[in-house]
Write a structure and sequence with these properties.
It is built from ten helices and no strands. It is mainly α and 238 residues long. It is globular.
């Protein structure tokens, strides 16, 4: 008598799946926006546009792969199916490393934002680190309870984020947006001076262009989240 195949419960709906991807993108953009603007200058929107085009292309590829292989695993499964077990093993552990870095980055960034409401925490790096660790533990416990609860929290926060961002965009565009100043800024192709922390490898290329290229790489790294959706493919309702 053969063993019964074990499958995961499909507790995540389409909005929950969307929220997983949007939450990662939103979190990264909040962190990367200032850095992209620092290096790209007035052409920060163009840097994000290039990153968005790349992101859409990657998303379409993931959509085809997730439909073909509707299993939990994401890049691990796709690499294993396309190449071999070793490729899947490497891809899987690379994703694990990526998630580890993301958890540390997002928890510290979130703790930094929360210090606005709790100024006493900002005075101590230890307190900020403790707050970040507490956030990680809380979310870890939510995931242990089950994906339904963690997805619900994600959906609520994403919905709130979309509403707040939409209000900010509408008010800024209608009340305080200057098209002439915007065009003037866009014409400035990157910041026109060397920035600390960058190795300028192109001696015949002006600093402003190299800064813009660097800004595009930061913008591209902020567009993540597709892998999170793919990881939960087996828990998403069809």
């Amino acid at each position: 008598m053969g063993e019964e195949e074990q499958t995961l419960k499909r507790d995540v709906g389409w909005y929950g799946s969307f929220s997983m991807g949007y939450a990662d993108v939103g979190a990264d953009v909040f962190i990367a926006l200032g850095l992209v603007a620092l290096y790209a200058g007035g052409r920060a929107p163009l840097a994000f546009l290039v990153a968005a085009i790349t992101y859409v292309s990657t998303g379409l590829a993931y959509a085809e792969l997730a439909t073909t292989y509707p299993y939990a695993g994401g890049a691990h499964i796709y690499s294993m199916k396309a190449f071999n077990d070793l490729a899947g093993f490497v891809a899987g552990w690379a994703v694990m490393l990526d998630y580890t870095v993301d958890i540390a980055l997002f928890s510290l960034a979130s703790a930094g934002y929360l210090t606005f409401f709790f100024p006493s925490i900002a005075s101590s790096n230890e307190k900020v680190g403790l707050l970040a660790a507490s956030l990680v533990i809380i979310l870890l416990l939510l995931n242990i309870v089950g994906i339904r609860l963690s997805s619900l929290l994600n959906e609520v926060l994403v919905g709130l984020g979309i509403v707040v961002q939409s209000i900010i965009l509408i008010l800024s565009l209608t009340l305080n947006f200057n098209w002439g100043f915007f065009v003037q800024q866009v014409l400035n192709f990157g910041v026109d001076k060397p920035q600390p922390g960058i190795e300028y490898f192109l001696p015949n290329v002006h600093f402003s262009l190299q800064n813009f290229i660097y800004a595009m790489t930061i913008a591209m790294s902020s567009f993540i989240g597709i892998e999170s959706i793919a990881q939960a493919a087996e828990e998403t309702r069809k």
